[in-house]
């Protein structure tokens, strides 16, 4: 087999890394290279493969150390039995790539994961060596996210936390049954044990920083995880419940959801087509409801249909409101914040402005309209100084009236 050059390796291993969605960097420690020392900075907006609200592209070098793997997880394109072209970077090559790309202003940090080669400990040693070299040998102060391996030696995982801003351990699938069927070499107790150890290390490091300024930072952006959606029979209700458990038990910064993508030469146990991308979007919305809107997991699950699936045509908050109409209408001039957050069409910023504005005047329907994208969606669920929905909230066809209208776009529109 001919030796691959760095460009060819980069093409293979950057493409192989696209299936991992957990690459944001919110909450990390602030570092910069002012004063002529060090390389890089974590200042500014978060780092991920996305576009900021102002249209700015935020990027990082997102690659695998190698796409070779001794595991044979059915859903993974890099599994042992997969017929894909293999490549591998050395730790030094990843360090050189990161620095070269950063100095050319191509990236704002590094997201590094890997297939398992030789053993979990050997692979984890290579990942840690990349982060160590960047931090200690080159004084790199940009963002680093390392994907850790659950059954690696705890000391290696601890070293990853000392050098990286964020670490992540993927739970892979929402249910234990799904993991047994599709990834028999992995186990829930093993994954959760690693996440528990990481949580303890993060908490201990924060306590030490409060007492001793010289104490080292440990994964200042916390830990995250990812679940694959649609590869097994787990319903949306199952996924919401599992995500809630992970947040509560391991203090995760984020749970990411990645829609299963069919792969070449796939196992017969996998579905033939990918789930709708809208399903992934609805799960992120449900995640937001639990984290920022005060919804309990059971409330989000109650918005699902009898099969446990969230509706695709409307968002989970609207689905909940339509199911529990006895909670509405809500008087925007008197209701507490927790009830205002449950009104479909009102976000956290709009609710904050309502709470501020109503201290000085009674709000009218036009006032609320200026705070939301669609007053038609909000109107059936609120009472204002000049508006009361009367029978509108109880109409049988309310869903059809306020659900987003499907729109056919023109391919060659000017």
TrEMBL record:
Tagged with keyword Heme: no
InterPro entries: Aldolase_TIM, DNA_rSAM_put, Elp3/MiaA/NifB-like_rSAM, Endo/Exo/Phosphatase_dom_1, rSAM, rSAM_sf, RuvA_2-like
Start and end residues of each Elp3/MiaA/NifB-like radical SAM core domain: 59-286
CDD domains: Radical_SAM
GO molecular function: catalytic activity; iron-sulfur cluster binding; metal ion binding
SUPFAM superfamilies (UniProt xref): Radical SAM enzymes, RuvA domain 2-like
Any Pfam family: Radical_SAM
Cofactor: [4Fe-4S] cluster
Domain of life, per lineage: Bacteria
Keywords noted in UniProt: Iron, Iron-sulfur, Metal-binding, S-adenosyl-L-methionine
Annotated protein name in UniProt: Putative DNA modification/repair radical SAM protein
